[in-house]
């Protein structure tokens, strides 16, 4: 498989300063040496608890945040070194779907103007082509062209998210970061939006990073799944492999938290405590403070990424050969 993105040793460390003198007193270690490939025409699910760094990773990939160090290589170019003008071209090819459709659409603009704005920003002045594209996209997301003359407040959350998706794909990008795109919606609407994303992936040959804390949705939509904990990828595998043959205790704990209808009498890992502060992360394995299988070396040494099988990698001493 061809890689659309190659993420190499990506770090995002936010400086922390005291309120009185503004002196540097530490860092928030949001991302730590993240290495990840995103393949063409796949949906890569990214899961983990709140505060694990999922959204930060998505924003660094799009260079909405400037990473502290590392590389984000897109079609052979490192976008972390691109100028503002070069980034403008990149962002035609890579877009973001925000979590909250109630906040992401300008309430003062009609839907037509919201969808036209990307053309204005990119100085595309062919009005006929713009109008045709807007009508085509609004039909593709399952809405009528009559909505173009209305305002965001006239629509439900699910309809607003469809419009937000339309805006993200209006310039025919290659890559989408979908950051918790259904978490603000009613459960009855979530499936419609997820199915729309799958349809668009097929029809537009999209590659997608789908960020979520809902593993049932991730299992439905993803081709591969990466599990994140405290700024690190701790396990990554193809979807079926990860759900059926997971190796990291954190992955096991996340899966155990998913409600099931049928009673399961097997012993489960239940996470205790909160995720540690990224400003003061534990030494050694970041998960050792909550892991039921912790060993002495876990408290002082960081585990490598161990390869279990083709494209299944785990950062855990339990998988050390």
Q: What report would you give on this structure?
A:
- It is globular and about 65 Å long.
- Helix content is about 30%, strand content about 25%.
- The chain has one domain: P-loop containing nucleotide triphosphate hydrolases (Rossmann fold, 3-Layer(aba) Sandwich).
- α6 (about 155-170) runs parallel beside α7 (about 185-205).
- It has helices at about 55-60, 85-95, 100-105, 110-120, 125-140, 155-170, 185-205, 215-220, 240-245, 250-255; strands at about 5-15, 25-40, 45, 70-75, 75-80, 95, 175-180, 205-210, 225-230, 230-240, 305-310, 310-315.
- The chain starts with a strand and ends in a 7-residue tail after the last strand.
- A hairpin with a 2-residue loop joins β11 (about 305-310) and β12.
- The model has no long low-confidence stretch (mean pLDDT about 90).
- The strands form two sheets. It has an eight-stranded mixed beta sheet with strand order 6-7-8-3-9-10-12-11, sandwiched between helices. A four-stranded antiparallel beta sheet has the order 2-1-4-5, with helices on one face.
- The protein is built from ten helices and twelve strands.
- By secondary structure, the chain is of the alpha/beta class.
Brief account:
The chain has a single domain, classed as Rossmann fold (3-Layer(aba) Sandwich), CATH 3.40.50.300. It is built from 10 helices and 12 strands. An 8-stranded mixed β-sheet has the order 6-7-8-3-9-10-12-11, with helices on both faces. Strands 2-1-4-5 form a 4-stranded antiparallel β-sheet, with helices on one face.
